[in-house]
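A quick aside before the break. I want you to see a complete sequence-to-structure record at least once, exactly as it would be stored in a machine-readable document. Don't worry about memorizing anything.
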Amino acid sequence: MHSNMWRRLTSAAVTLASLAAAGPAAAAPRHSTYTKVLLIVEENRTYGEIIGSPDAPYLTALSRTHGTATRMSANYPVRCPSLAAYILVTSGTTAGICDDRGPRHHRLAGPNIFAQLNAAHLPWRNYAENLPTRCALRNSNDGIFLVRHTAVPYYTNLGRTCRIGQVDLGSSTRGALHDDLAAGNLPAFSFVTPNACNDMHGARTCPNDRVAAGDRWLKGWIPRILAGADYRAGRLVVIITWDEGSPTDNHIPTLVLSPTTRGIVTHQPHNHCSTLRTMQEILRLALLGCARSARTMTSDFALVP
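That is the input. The structure line, written in tokens, reads:
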């Protein structure tokens, strides 16, 4: 069979598998030349607390050299805490959640991006820092690992892939993420969960300079990610976002890093649904929930031809 025809048939098969996983109403995604996404979710900061802040010099510099969305909203009620954001950005709905209880209290069987990837036979990983055990159902005793910041264990339709796909992140010099970066072996979707000290959330054992601590952590990781084989080969898009802003303001920072995103500042309105849509378009997955009607970021950040 002619190679071009084979590629078209293979792409169609993946799309059909994704549609089956998401339901018949999903819209067809746009084409992107990228094939992998790495999403890092930080915690509880408004746009003004990061972009231009003296406590976040590295992130401010990244926003100027790569891409930043100036009108990004968490897009869920400010009175609701973190968990709703993590479910929203991975499934297209908050599932009515407005608390931070663990997976034993919220057993979600609906469509989500991890189940879509399973159905399409595409690999994913949740690199979770200080993960106490794979597919952890509760916080660590010291409060450094918070299960509500991972999303994965809440989805009951992932089965054994929860334990396979969720791994301890390791450090910037050794461990799962370091090794996959070095080998050019990142999965199609990487969901990165920093610990409570490095995600700007804070815990009783964390330093008080929460924003600065997260900025330093990202300064240690991002150059390694951008130097990795996947990014250098033009396969990888990196998105850094925040779950929510403050109790009164859900205007959050979001940065997009890719080889074709150079010094882009967009003032178009975006939200967590936009992030989900963008990731699904890059991964050739059918659009879920609010992603169907959200504004994509693919064209705004030069991620499409």
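Two observations worth writing down. Residues 162 and 193 are 15 Å apart (CA to CA). The two ends are 27 Å apart (CA to CA). We'll return to this after the break.
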